[in-house]
Amino acid sequence: MATLSIQVDDQIKAKLSALAGIKAENENNLVQAAIQNYLEEELDALEDEAIWQEYNTTGGIEHARVMLWLEALARGENAKCPR
Prior knowledge:
This protein is mainly α and about 80 residues long. It is about 70% helix and about 0% strand. The longest helix is centred in the middle third of the chain and has 32 residues, at about 25-60. The radius of gyration is 21 Å and the shape is elongated.
């Protein structure tokens, strides 16, 4: 595991300490979870934007591909949405 040092203002530090106390959680774990959640949301947003740009460029996804995906879902498969 790598170490990352950041500087935060006193107000953020106080809120972090308060939350850690309320949740009986380590401040480091809270910050690590917050960073993980942020990264996942940002990466998902970038992926969504890329999908939107592709849709605008190509006009969408072929009906047959969507139907194959929906049929897989109906069979209980964990299929990814076609792109």
